[in-house]
Amino acid sequence: MKENWFSSEEYQARLAAVRARMESRQLDGLLLFSPANVYYLVGHHSIDSWEFRALVITPDRDPAFLLFNFERGRFEASSWLQEVRFYGATDDPVDELAALAGDLGLAAGRIGIEQNATNLNVATYRRIEARLSRAELVGADRLVDRIRMVKSAAELDCVRRAAELTGIGLAAARETVHAGVVDGEIAAAATAAMFRAGSHQLVMQPTIAVAGRSGLSHSQHDGVQARRGDSVFVELSGNWRHYSAPIMYTTTIGPVDDERNEFLEIAHETAEAIIAHAKPGVRACDLAARGHAAMRSIEDRLQFHYIFGYSVGISFPPHWIEESLFHIRATNQEPLQAGMVFHLPLTMRLLGRTMHTGLLRTVRFLSLSRRDDLRCEDLLRGGFYP
Length: 386
Known about the structure:
alpha+beta; five-stranded antiparallel sheet; 18 strands; about 35% helix; globular
């Protein structure tokens, strides 16, 4: 059964936007390797994100796709393309790509190449350079990713469904938290709830960090048993049609000390400062400045990354951060646009302390609609529960 998740008109609009950018950069062709960008433009998706694949975009014909022949079934099930060039287990895919480029008249052309794809290593890139030595290869990192930042109405529907699944997973995690529970049990409950509700493949497993581990960035469940007074950190996202809507959340078991309550209130104020002023046309750096101002009273005790938000949408392992790297931070002077979706990772840790500090914060799922007004969908507010 064909997985026609988006309309033909939507795919053609995406390709038109990419070709317009290619024309502005005087590119004869564009080489793409990212599973997310392949999925975005031609619909192909698979749990196999490690085998070599290449999508070639030209100005005046359907995209040309090079794919491992073992993926034939997934291609036929998911892509709107009618034709694909397969390579076999004993073939050199770089040689096959060079031959494909020659067939398309690109052997001596000006070709944009996606250098930042997570599945394209340095050695393979250098071999491509050598095999296409007559062509002019031009870095085209994030050419497609920057287009993907602005979601269509159909894409926003996918993100909203992913957010519903995220909420189901978070609710299950919250219900599981009590003195004596092991962190892996919380992760299992959240994962099972999201899968039962229909979540597709998770990009990252739920992050559950208990007690001292909750104050250490990027900790994971490790067989730690929660005790009274511990903080429990949860980060997770459901997934719908490869769109994620992540959330972070912290609770404690039992009483909360004054300092953690103080950090919680500042986290709420920081989130409110950003959300209240987020609208199309506002510069990301100006939003970051408002968030920064809200947390200055605790900054001398705070460990923070100063990324007040980042763009999310289509995601494949190993993470859900969009490759556009559009961050709400002091160095980004670009304006927000209607249709963008952000995760606000307001992780506030007590500097230099790891025991029972937790991550005290409010997390929201923020969506800018296609209209001129702001649409803010609040998932579940972080907080403390006895």
